[in-house]
Amino acid sequence: MGTLKSFSHRKTENYKMGFKLNITLLFVLLLWASDAEAQAAVFDVTKYGARPDGMTDISQALLTAWKAACNSTTASTILIPTGTYMLGPVKLEGLCKAPLKLQVQGTVKAPADPAKFKGFDGWLTINRLNQFTMSGGGIFDAQGEVAWKQNDCAKTGKCNSLPTSFRFNFISNSIITDITSLDSKLFHVNVIGCNNLTFQHVNVTAPDESLNTDGIHIGRSNGVYIIDSLIGTGDDCVSLGDGSKQVKVSNVTCGPGHGMSVGSLGRYPKEDDVVGFSVINCTFTNTDNGVRIKTWPASYAGVASDLHFENLIMNNVGNPILIDQEYCPYNQCTKSKPSQVKLSKVSFKNIRGTCKTPLAVKLACSSGFPCQGVEIGDINLTYNGKGTVKAEVSNVKPKVTGKMIPALP
Ligand SMILES: *[C@@H]1O[C@H](CO)[C@@H](O)[C@H](O)[C@H]1NC(C)=O
Ligand SMILES: *[C@@H]1O[C@H](CO)[C@@H](O)[C@H](O)[C@H]1NC(C)=O
Ligand SMILES: *[C@@H]1O[C@H](CO)[C@@H](O)[C@H](O)[C@H]1NC(C)=O
Ligand SMILES: *[C@@H]1O[C@H](CO)[C@@H](O)[C@H](O)[C@H]1NC(C)=O
Ligand SMILES: *[C@@H]1O[C@H](CO)[C@@H](O)[C@H](O)[C@H]1NC(C)=O
Ligand SMILES: *[C@@H]1O[C@H](CO)[C@@H](O)[C@H](O)[C@H]1NC(C)=O
């Protein structure tokens, strides 16, 4: 009895232990499985045929890796590892099934010859994504020098023949961080139809004399944030086209280039309003302008309001503070009729430093639609040349909120 009891007891114990072991094993297996699921799958372009030899076009490898990652039902990463790659124009399409990260550790070069971009208006065109991240410290070098020499935008008024380096179209809740854009052929970055898109620690670089290499141009988007970045290029540092809403720029260093601008606005019919733009804690060095709002005369109707410029340092800047409602480059318009773009709620506060022209402040508003609700104060700008700084003001009665050097007339 005793033996039997102990036997059956032992048997039960064994059975229990086996059960426990199985449960533990199952648990471990489950943990492992869920861990594998939580860890984003990595789609390395070199596993799809990309070679880091700086010569072989990796566009097919990138497109295949992108397709596979985009089809993943869990978060995934497309990796371009360290090394130098050649990449032709690509369109990276969403929507994707889960958050996607493009991690670029290498240097990616575009063909220098613009003819290789026939039929493409962008180098990397990225369409329709939600929760996208681009990061990794990589460099995108568009090798724009050949293109700049061929650029005839000024003569023809069209720049369509050259590709923009990055086109972000309809991207939401996404972040571009630790990426360098070098020597774009035309604009570095164009943002259209985006919602809640952040650029942080981006480095945008092209020489002063490169034509139309705007840093980041934004249009028809809501919530674009540019922070902790460096933008030195041959055209506007950041520019806002029609329909830009809630764009915030802070801790950005601009220069060389043309500074930050709203517009040009009013050139085309039915432009969407520009509402909510703040530029805070930024430095401008050797730029042609600091902060500028430009609208065309004899223009179509438009609205730009809630534009705020604060805590800015100007180092040898052409026109640090500028509202120009008679913007008419290359005489492509007539100045006989005033601009119909209404500017309101504009402030310039705590802007200091030096300028390379004596005209430190110019507020030239439309005679047809004088600017409303303009505030300016705590301005201290000195001229680097001989003579004194001055301010010009027309069709606006700004409220002065602090000390003014130069004083308003
Ligand atoms: C997408 O993934 C599904 C399974 O999740 C698979 O059946 C299908 O073949 C994949 N499509 C592509 C283009 O990879
Ligand atoms: C904006 O996008 C970021 C990055 O994806 C996200 O963390 C944040 O929650 C989004 N904000 C809103 C208001 O959706
Ligand atoms: C920005 O990129 C340029 C070109 O690659 C480089 O020379 C410069 O050092 C970079 N600046 C920073 C702060 O990373
Ligand atoms: C401003 O941006 C620079 C460059 O990214 C960064 O090193 C610095 O920490 C930022 N400053 C603040 C106050 O965040
Ligand atoms: C600007 O800088 C000040 C002082 O460093 C800081 O308190 C403030 O948060 C900054 N503002 C933005 C929008 O970064
Ligand atoms: C304006 O700036 C100049 C040069 O930096 C400085 O010498 C002067 O004290 C400043 N004036 C005021 C009122 O802050």
From TrEMBL:
This is Glycoside hydrolase, family 28. It comes from the Eukaryota. Keywords: Cell wall, Cell wall biogenesis/degradation, Glycosidase, Hydrolase, Secreted, Signal. Gene3D superfamilies: Single-stranded right-handed beta-helix, Pectin lyase-like. Belongs to the glycosyl hydrolase 28 family. GO terms for molecular function: polygalacturonase activity. The keyword Signal applies. The active site is at residue 258. PANTHER family: PTHR31375. It is found in: Secreted, Cell wall. PROSITE patterns: POLYGALACTURONASE.
